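Re-run requested by the PI after the first attempt was lost when the workstation crashed. Everything re-entered from the original request form. Ligand of interest: adenosine-5'-diphosphate.
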Amino acid sequence: MKLSEIGEFGFINRFSEKFSSLNRNEECGIGDDCAIMPLDDQHDQIVTTDLLIEDIHFLRSEITPFDLGYKALAVNLSDIAAMGGKPTASFLSIALPGDTDVEYMDQVMEGYHNLSEKYQVPLLGGDTTKSPDKIVINVCVTGRVKKGTAKLRSAATNDDFICVTGPLGDSGAGLKILLEKINPDSSSRKLISWHNRPEPAINEGLWLGNKTGVNAMMDISDGIASDLLHILSKSGKGATVYVESIPLSTALKETADHNGWNALELALTGGEDYRLLLTISSRSFKKLEKEYNKEFQIPISCVGRITEKNPGQIIWMKENQPYSLDRGGFNHFRE
Ligand code: ADP
Ligand code: MG
């Protein structure tokens, strides 16, 4: 059997259960944005790690070294935000071809430092080795939450409002512009910039993490069409999503119009937006939405509801009619 037949999650499922019997009490491992381990009487420690490989996750010709360093940390901080946590430290392992310019790597570390400074996350270690011909960057980030309060993918309940913390599809559209070598205008430059230098929703995640009305939460790294399925399968629920409520940026709408692209499909299936996807109990939604929108510049958007029926499935609706989606979100190894 080839990996392409089962995809990345099929592979992870083959071994994750065998290892879970080694988990000690209160530890929560494979299957969420971060692992959770008890830290002290008041806190849990959360840990995440993510790998960036040249020509799979980035093209050296299409991202500045500064942005590459920034993004390597940003995608990990995003998983901390997804649990409602505060980042506490990072570890950085890099494999580099022998002919890499030192000045190039200085810039990578400038970008990494810039984001570390913004959220006051110290770099506490890592590893550096030689690689045959591609750059490989692995980052591990630790964080902290108040004991028992980490926001899990498994916590969605019936009738919850499904929400996102910002426009979707910008990163996927930015990547498309780079891959199709389209001359960028001011709108598409914004999309490329979100693709190359996404901002982790640390402050939003911390704020939402403190609210009891927030049930499930995760970050959108593979597109909502794929990521929402994780919440549904872990929570044993279904969902109805109203696609006309999916927030789209002006830059995405303009660029899609200009190039004849379907902005909505990009928003539903494009990866690497790093906005938060969360479910809010129906009792708390109105008040929470109001408070959130007072606190943050970009409003929270309700895009659908959690349902008891159709477990593990998303029913897509557009203006009260069923809507069918051409393809799901991103999955390594799958075409
Ligand atoms: P995310 O996109 O939030 O980083 P993924 O969807 O990539 O999460 O991974 C899903 C879960 O599988 C996570 O809990 C992650 O830690 C775990 N996981 C992925 N690959 C491995 C692996 N090789 N070994 C152990 N756990 C893994
Ligand atoms: Mg994640």
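Saved to the shared folder this time. The chain has two domains: 31-146, 153-322.
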